[in-house]
Write a structure and sequence with these properties.
The complex is a heterodimer of chains A (169) and B (59). Chain A has eight helices and seven strands. Chain A has 169 residues and is α+β, with helices and mostly antiparallel strands. Chain A folds into two domains: 2-111, 2-Layer Sandwich (Beta Polymerase, domain 2), CATH 3.30.460; 115-165, no CATH class. The radius of gyration of chain A is 16 Å and the shape is globular. By secondary structure, chain B is mostly helical. Classes of the chains: A alpha+beta (169), B mainly alpha (59). Chain A binds chain B through residues 1-2, 25-26, 29-38, 78-79, 101-104, 134, 137-140, and chain B through 12-13, 16-17, 19-20, 24-25, 27-32, 34-36, 38.
Chain lengths: 169, 59
C-alpha cells in the first residue's frame, strides 16, 4: 500500500488529480478489524470535472510509472487500484474532509469514518450495511455523527430504515 | 433472552474494538496476504472434468 500512497501523492503533486481519498474496505480497515477485499478503491477529484474522459490522465500517469491495467483497475504492487471520480456532493465532501493516515511513513489520504458510513448507507448493499455495523461496533463512529452527516446529505430516511432494520436504536 | 443477545453484541463489539487497534498498514498487509492465498488456492483448484462420449453420437 506504500507504493499506492506514493503514486497518489505524486499524482497530486503533478496536478494530474486535485485531491484523493481511499474509500471502501481499505479505508474501513483504518477503523475496524481486517476485512477481505479484491482491490483498493480511491475517490479522486480531477482538475477538469467537465472533461469527457476524466480518468485518462490518471491511467496515463500510472502507465508512465510502469503500472499496468488489470481489468478495470491498475495493478500497483500488491493492490489492484480502482480510481473513482467523485460522483456526488457526498463523495466530493468526503475527499475534502478526508484525514491523512500513515502507511509505514507514507501519508495516505483516507475518508473519515462518518463519511465511510454514510457513503455505505447511500449505496445500500448487504456488505455496505455490514460496514456500517463494523464501524459502529469498533467505536469509530457514533449514531449521532452518522445521523448528522446523513441529514446533511438527504439520507435521514435511509438512516432511520437502517436503524429499524438492524434493531440498532 | 433479550439480555443474552445484548451480552453477545457487547462481546462482539469488544472483540471488534480490540482487533481495530492494530496499525492500519499491518491490517492492509494481512489483507493483501489473504488475497494472495485465495488467488493461489483458486489456481490450484481442479478444473471440471471434460465430458467424454457417454451418449449417442451423431453420424
Amino acid at each position: 500500500m506504500q507504493a499506492v500512497a506514493r503514486l497518489l501523492n505524486d499524482m497530486v503533486e503533478a496536478g494530474v488529480i486535485a485531491d484523493y481519498a481511499v474509500v471502501g474496505a481499505v479505508a474501513q480497515m483504518r477503523y475496524t478489524e481486517t476485512v477481505t477485499t479484491l482491490d483498493a478503491d480511491v475517490l479522486v477529484a480531477v482538475p477538469d470535472p467537465a472533461a469527457l474522459d476524466l480518468l485518462s490522465p490518471v491511467y496515463a500517469f500510472c502507465r508512465d510509472r510502469g503500472y499496468e491495467p488489470e481489468g478495470e483497475a491498475m495493478r500497483v504492487g500488491d493492490w489492484p487500484v480502482q480510481f473513482i471520480p467523485a460522483f456526488s456532493h457526498l463523495t466530493e465532501a468526503a475527499i475534502r474532509d478526508a484525514e491523512t493516515g500513515d502507511i509505514d511513513g507514507a501519508p495516505l489520504r483516507v475518508v473519515r469514518a462518518d463519511y465511510l458510513a454514510v457513503i455505505a448507507l447511500s449505496v445500500g448493499r448487504a456488505k455496505d450495511f455490514a460496514r456500517i455495523l463494523a464501524l459502529r461496533e469498533s467505536g469509530a463512529v457514533t449514531d449521532k455523527e452518522v445521523s448528522e452527516l446523513a441529514r446533511r446529505h438527504d439520507l435521514s430516511s435511509a438512516w432511520a430504515t437502517f436503524l429499524e432494520r438492524f434493531h440498532a436504536t | 433472552m433479550r439480555l443474552d443477545i445484548h451480552a453477545m453484541l457487547e462481546r462482539q463489539a469488544a472483540w471488534q474494538r480490540s482487533r481495530a487497534d492494530r496499525p492500519w498498514a499491518e491490517k492492509l498487509r494481512e489483507c493483501a496476504s489473504a488475497r494472495r492465498g485465495l488467488v493461489s488456492l483458486k489456481k490450484s483448484a481442479p478444473t471440471p472434468r471434460q465430458k467424454t462420449s457417454d451418449g449417442p453420437t451423431e453420424s
